[in-house]
Fold these 4 entries.
Entry 1:
Amino acid sequence: MQTNLLPVINSDMALFCLLIPLLPLIGFIINGLGNRKLPKGLAGLIGCGTVLASFALALYLFTNFNGQPYVVNLFDWISVGNLRIPFSFQIDQLSLIMLLLVTGVGSVIHIYSAGYMSHDINFGKFFAFLNLFIFSMLLLVMGSNYVMMFVGWEGVGLCSYLLIGFWNKVTPYNNAAKKAFIINRIGDLGFLLGIFLLFMTFGSVTYADIFQQAAQLHEVNQPVIIAITLLLFVGAMGKSAQLPLYTWLPDAMAGPTPVSALIHAATMVTAGIYMVIRSNVLYTLAPTSLEFIAIIGLATAVFAATIGLAQNDIKKVLAYSTVSQLGYMFLALGVMAYTSSMFHVLTHAFFKALLFLGAGSVIHAMSGEQDIRFMGGLRKKLPITFLTFLIGTLAISGIPPFAGFFSKDELLAQVYEHSKIMWAFGLLTSFMTAFYMFRLLFLTFFGTFRGTEEQRHHLHESPVSMTLPLIILAILSTIGGFMGLPAVFSENHILSNFLEPVLGFSRLALPSAFEKAHLDHNTEYMLMAVSVAVAVVAIVIAYVMYVSKNTVPANDKTETGGFHKLVYNKYYIDELYNALIVNPIMWLSTGLHHFVEKGIIDPIVNGFGKVTLAGGRNLRYLQTGAIGFYIFAMVISIALILILNFFIR
């Protein structure tokens, strides 16, 4: 087994690394134990303060990073035979970017939550769960081995269950939480099997050991590497909501809106992309796996975008847009555009957190209403929410100079080099994204108000604790793309240059894979122009339909047909899963309960109990309390022993 190849740090820097995940864990413990005992102000201060402190420490690590990755060994965790698993953190370019993302966007969402959840009786418990979510995600991205990643992986799964079903007195919310938990367990089984196969192949689960050995292989598409990468990707399909394990994410909207923002922007769904980028050398050596990932990502992007066209729940539209955007990211990974995928992860975190929190501000003003058919004309009553939501919508639609334009353009350019057909479908997805997002914007903020008089009377802008995070995220969604300017504008791609060392083992293993000719400037200009033009056309169509013609989607009782009915009902995938998987399992469980458990197991277990009770009831008669009887029984017993002893001899 290899020894760790990265330098080990034992200094004040190690203390900072430990405090980054430890502070949210302390916040979880204090708020969890204090729940209704602590004043809401104090609970909010602890919840927000611990994550902000973690962000400050992560920023300190980032600004003092000298480009040399290092490991912080805390203690030896598991030692069995040849298996050695330290509890240690790996600090490098990738983990630093993820630390800033998780703690930075996470702290903004925490601040927003202080206003959004201010009237909830379980305010302290909510912040405890949010802090635990951040801790689990930090453990996932900081761990130096796959087992620590898996612990954080399971932790975010648990937290999603707790937060999606936070309002646990509502049965549909509990069902949504259970659905998320169970579907993720399916993916996690594949991830766990992949870790087992990694240990069997490389004799280690530590990144440095595995990647160093993998880099020496040089041969592509070895069956064991394909098996490892596909098993790990099964885990990513569950965690990052790819076909066919995506159905939990739209239902996760049952949780409070800040939870949706945290899941979709900064934590859970980014875990799968992080895992693939972290394991990039393994995937570089498995082009077959990469092609499969690209196909799944593209299929997910197109599929989810079509569903988003017909949804009327403001959070459901955003949920399907997340599934679609995650498909984009996996499409980029499939064409080996690792840094482009991470670029889109970052910009998506900015504008998707903004959009979800903006949706929460709308829901807050509308007294809990989420159906965009009963909104309209809100831009005058909610000016800050409208302006920031508009910025988020422009960003996700790929309109320059907002962040989404730069990351999506770079991503599609990489896909164009790989396959013109995939690029065309990616462009179609971009068209649908711009259309359904501006459909959402126009129906919510333009036209006349379609709600009740009581809702109209209640309309007001959200408090500063909610609008300030919107403003911060709007600024990031505006300028965030400048960390990765296209080559036609600048040769200095800040993010790509920073993340370059993360791909070192991949370049060592397969140099030829990184020798592709880059697009010429004219082609880049053409691709950018086409991308923007497609988005603008979609926006114009949405404007004509929902502003000029003042079209309002039909209510649920109105019969619709054809493609609209199909996408409105989400292709009946949930019904199909229920018919093919859930119902047969329930029937089997019911049959086993009646015929095996009640018919066989219960009689056997109860029979032993009845025999024991009957024996006890009868044997107690031997305890008469009469000394004469005890002497008689003793004499008879001695006589029997002597007789048996005589005959046995």
Note: Residues 573-619 form the longest helix (47 residues).
Entry 2:
Amino acid sequence: MADILPSIMSPRDLQQLSPEQLEQLATEMRKALCEVAATRTAHFASNLGVVELCLALHRVFDFSRDRLIWDTGHQIYPHKLITGRFSQFGTIRTRGGLMGYPNPDESPYDLFMTGHAGSSVSTALGLASGDDLCGRDGRRAVAVIGDGALPSGIVFEALNNAGFLKKRLLVILNDNRMSICPRVGALAEYLDFIRTNPWYRGIKTQATELIKGVPMVGGQMERMLVNVKDSLKATLHGGMLFEAMGVRYFGPVEGHSLPNLIRYLELVKDQEGPILLHVLTEKGHGFKPAEADPVFFHTPAPFECDDDDCIVSIKKSSSRAYTDVASSTIGSCMRHDTRVTVLTAAMCQGNKLEPVREEFPDRFFDVGICESHAVAFAAGQAKVGCRPIVDIYSTFLQRSFDQIFQEVCLQNLPVTFMLDRAGLTGPDGPTHHGAFDIGYLRLFPNMVVMAPGDEHDLEAMLPWALQHAGPVAIRYPKATVERHAGSRTPIELGKAEVLAEGADGLIIACGTLLGAALEAAARLRTEGIDVAVINARFVKPLDTELLLARIDAAPWVVTVEENALPTGFGSAVVEAINDAHATSGLAAAAVVRLGLPDRFVEHGERGELLGELGLDASGIAATCRRLAGRSPTAVGDAAPTPHHAAHTARP
């Protein structure tokens, strides 16, 4: 039973706690994290690792005035617990409940909705600069960034600028030797060198203990020791990386000792100029199973454990997901073609590429959280004859927009993009929904954009893409696989397939909402409404020959996609109709586009969200029924509200 945590209404309440009570509060916070992780999939190990850091920051700073940015935002849970949201904490990552990332709508202590890594130093520097310009003297800006996010290019852009501007900025480097998986790269090796340097760690510990024993002058002497020690260290190392950029480096500091953390934060709190405090933490700290396997416990399936923190059971799903199909198909293609490589950006586990990494270590490249680099790197490989697969979540691939344009499409290079988590990602919410990839990919000349309707399509599309002479993108959702029965046509460039016939209307499905479209058509058929269903397969190039002929013969048309409606698949269809009308006078008909509305969609289970947006079988059937002139109330399906669909009257 929590004794202290329920009484924490704001970080100000921490000031009244004794050191012993702070330690008890840390224990209670970890208990609250365990209770949530036992009931639903949630970010777990990363939050366990920052409990003491969170408490120390809020004890030393006043973030009702000062500024705090957490990077990446999935380590926000302890912060939420002590900023007035404990009573709601059980709702986290559920529809209508707390978001699993920072959310300014929830609390003034959340300044940005941060779900992607690397931007914290830039935004914190902007906050510091803006406060200075607005005359808000004395405020401090703090960015907490993990070592996995540190190699992101934008971080070094920000540090370079910070070293020049000399603003008061504190960067906390939360070094737990992990991203989601173990971190990679030369910078990781550099941090490990600092972490494990025995001479430096030994002299720091001994000297600090000596100075602390000196009465009255201990604090001043310790501050002097920190400055002397870091100057000596910079000399011995030939110039610290961060110091060379104009950012003063302090640390490394033990990150699970509250007194130690508080002491160091007090030391650097009022120092001028940009400072980086290197804090050593352990991902999963305080929960033995997570300490032993921080990769699995990053976002574990719900579990039960006994009083000794021993796992009793894990509620794993036995369902096969599209990510599983993609991973196994990648492995198969690599076995058959030695030119094929695979690149990911710190998402080996999320993309389920561990078997590929183990079987093909020489052709597997995890570049860290550096999506722009991953795409340009792949372009280089393609230029010399490789067939690289860039396997990145849809929402993260956005970060490499310019490299897709310049290094891949402009050069017409055979790079294949596997866009995992395209569409709604469920409880991760708007920072992670893959809502925009169709729009930002179909813009580019030479790019082929594909959307498998089911498992069969995904298995066939990747081998086809690897034989194509230019860039190809394949988008698929975070969802359980479906496989639709019947004879299927082979994959051909720009060719759709008809899966159901009907003269009363037409549904054109883009991607894995094909199953919902087929189910809607089956329901309508029992009501005497015969609707044809087309599996589009290709967003670009469209199968205009088939689609326009079918559209011309249909009384009404519904396009269905799990993507933002502006610039999406439905827009591409309407553009094709307009172009055809300009030259051939295509007859008029009603075209309704179903997809994600022009707003950021909240978090919730994917099925819940699809239902609310009119993108499940009931919603699609209701739209078709309305177009056919049938009453929706007669069969119990409510038509989607206006912001869920866009209606286009064909000229």
Note: The first helix runs from residue 19 to 37.
Entry 3:
Amino acid sequence: MKSKAQAVTHVEAVAAEASASRRLSSSSQEWLGKDQGGPAVDENRLKFAGTIPTRFTPKTGLAGLAENWRADLLSGFLVFLIALPLCLGISMASGFPPQAGIITAVVGGLLVSRINGSFVTITGPAAGLIVVILDSVQALGGGDAKAGYHYTLAAIVCASVIQMLMGIMKAGKMSAFFPSSAVHGMLAAIGIIIMAKQIHVMLGVKPDAQTLFETIGAIPASLRDMNPEVAIIGGIGLLILIAWSLVKSRRLRMIPAPLVVVIIGMALAQYYDLDDEHIYLFLPDYAFLPHHEFTIGPKFLVSIPQNFLSGFAFPDFSLIGSRMFWQQVFAICLVGSLESLLSSAAVDKLDPYKRTSDLNRDVAAVGFGNIICGMIGGLPMIAEIVRSSANVNNGARTGWANFFHGLFLLTFVALFPRVIHEIPLASLAALLVFTGYRLASPLEFKKTLAIGWDQLAVFVITIIGVLATDLLIGVAIGIAAEFLFHFWRSVNWGQVFKLHRDVVERAPGVYQVTIGGAAFFANYLALKGDLAKIPSGKTVVFDLSESWCVDHTVMENLHHFCDDYEANGGHAEIRGLDQHVATSKHPLAPRRRSV
């Protein structure tokens, strides 16, 4: 094992080799489904290759609009085509009126895009918030969906005030406290819940179920009793999404799959005459079918006000003194803030210009936007990863793409509400079922297992905890499981919240970060604050030779730091892991010193 002095003197050689070395794949990219193949990683020396600085960096503000309006206008229009059906589907799945999701996307595009701290993210309603919002509507409404809607708007306003204050108090770094496997377990559980609820809508059946497990158990009955014409619309939509995900043609993939699903669904709705309520016979000659008569009509289409302004609603704060109200407030605030931070950080990895978002400003801006949404009847918004990825792929350069996407949505819903009414609910349900599957696909379990069996255990425990209780308690159970695994590795209680670290400039422009003791998610925040003070464009060497153990979350965060640091013109290296034993061959697996 090389000494600290040797580690420092070796840095210049690392810098020379950096541009020729393969970049270690980031965990955030893994969760987006990127290819993670590559050569074996030297345990003693994890290097992060530098990114060639981009000569052209787009301007921001009005100068950025004048410079990049063509690219941003086109991307904004294409994202609008994706966002319209998703906003409607997410809103109805959350127990809100369909227009609520569009209100949120409009506020996110026209307002938040002008004050946030990111560059190419798209803000709007997201599938990850469906579960917590629907739970709030049901819990606060006590069976009255309309009352629950207005009470939940009040909870969104209160949660958003807290969210905005978090951003002002620079709480963006708090995302590092949550163990990665628990966070991804929460997202997978959300995916399972979305699928369980939306499959019934896609089949045109309302299940006789009160709890989540009853809803899951009712799926076979819904398959048996499905409304055939509605199920055909939903099934074809789902098949299109699956087929589109397998298409290799870049030109064909430029056409948004959700738009194709909606257009074909609208055509089938016209063919089956969903505008008029009527009874039809399906395969009456087959006696083995349980029944042949089915009712179909406008209730299977999106219902939206003809006047955009009439879709606004206002919060009811009459439950503000109750414990249940504040439980929903903190759930909305936690899930929304955490998912928005994770999404913004992930989108930064996709930005071809390698810009880094101001996460604190982003949280504050999203919180301010959510206050507006809660006051006028909208859902809470986050930095949404799917639409943001499409925004990058479509060539967006600045936040004006987000602005144009909101402007197109406002124009469409104000001028063409009748067109929105012709969209079948089954088509929107197919979009959400596919989204839920992507969150909880078997591939996510496989990727987590590749990191280590203990991380898979935390992942699964979190999923079970969320399904059996709720989001807050489920995540808390996942965090507790992570703690237990660390104590099982003989981590001392005294090392739980205090990380031994030392940041020293050993030579001009060369910073050595020595980490000792137990490095894991609960004590990483202090180190993150120290790293933020290191000037950009220098050389940073992490020496982990004195650490007793390093968990997956810390390995992931150190990698993200190195990735971002190199993108801004510096060099970074992790050393001192040759005496550590990893739980798997994955480069970001937890490690424990063997001697």
Note: The chain has three domains: 4-40+493-593, 61-434, 443-488.
Entry 4:
Amino acid sequence: MVSKKEAVFGEYEKAKSQKEALGEKGLYEQTKINARFYSGNQWYGANCGNDRPLVRHNIIKRIGDFKMSQILSGRYDVSYFAGEAEDTGAKKSLRAEIKEAKTAFSGEVGGKEAGVVCRALSAYFKQCAKRLDLDSLSAEVLKRAYIGGCGVLYTYFDSEADTGMSLYGNKIRGDIACEVLDVRDVYFADKDETDVQAQPYIIIAAKKDKQAVLRQAHAFGTENALKNLKADDDGKVLVLTKLYKEYKKDGAAVFCVKVTEDGVLRPDFDTKLHYYPLCAFRFDELDGGAYGESEVTYLIPNQIAVNRMITASVWSNIASGMPMMIVNGDTVSGEITNDPGQIIKIFGTNEDVAGAVKYVSPPDYSAAFNAAVNNLIENTLTQCGASPSALGDERAQNASAITRLQTAALMPINVLKSRYREFLVQNAKIWADFWLGLYGDRKIRIEDESGVWFFPFDAQRYAGISIGAAVGTGEPETFTATEKTAVLGELYDKGIITAKQYVSRLPDALLSGKQEIINGMKEKKNED
């Protein structure tokens, strides 16, 4: 009979072989090459020597950074909803809804309560996104997707995290945490299935410090099974975390098991989740399946051609400005340094002097060659959706013409933005799954128009609510913080807006603690 450890490692080796067979070079090697080209190490292995400059014009990084900045420049507002929720009144604040109830909701969870919970979780999502720095995590996911084909955001429950809150005198510990995984460390059971939640199982591979693994084994009660745990030369142990689903009458339940090559680190356990805690973003899903496909792979030939052509152009200019010198050794006896103003002694006739030193003129460099380089760069950028218009390099007669050109050029980016919105929706569902499954009875921090307060959240009570997520979008920011402040100042000086409206709309980067200032304004008004 195959042991649990052998079964998981067998599945891991199978998925690893599938990765190695993807594309011409396999996922591991191709991702390594793509990373070098993105970072600018584009002459690696060319063996061109160091005698002449090897020029790089990094169009791969420019295309990737442009697309990522366009995706992240939009405003994405995450909100939760429930099918059984009732309209709680958009004009009424969430805090006011709870105060009207006077006491916590009791009895069965009704539509009104479901609506209040969804509004509370929508506000709490913003707090978690700020705490976990979701913007930076998303940027890293996009970068890894551009280079390796797929970026993966992994959410887990840190049971030791200090929430800073207590219940009945006991400190509340445990909160969600996130990590961006390298696609090379994630193994999908079905390489052709792009829906993460439809995967039969997912394996995450990680190299962990041996002592850290032993501490986990002690916590899980498996130290005896791993008493002969072996590590590699760096003191690391390969740990495989397998996530799989079991389907019951009330839906799917995610289970987990952790193994090492020497035995089971943590036996199978119920995670209390319904979703796999991973969401994936892919720039291209056409042929790469679950692992996506990197655009960088197909840009490398163009990048090599551009580098070689520009390098040849630079070498030609160097040869023209500092041509090669030929010296007749029979008539020139001194050392030649080629320094400006050097006096060269020549012994012989006038004919000997005339033939002592000559310069080799380089071949004529065609102007069409430079044009070909520029055309290759521009065509590559345009075909990848980063045309001069989109980048703001296109010349136009007025601002409105520039805007029209940029709007038309950015249309292909909308496909990526739509895919990114779906990524955020999946992540929002995963976070809600953690809250409902693992938060227990605690208060969650809310910050809205009424200030900072805490919502009484009972995970066990709300576990039956079927919560969905949606992402609303707005136009990207087109004005700087300084420009927005100047406009607000003019509106306030003209009496169009009040002091409270002025303060509330100031950019966060220019004024921290806005809510405290607004609350102080309210208190002063009440005293008057």
Note: Residues 398-402 have pLDDT under 50 and may be disordered.
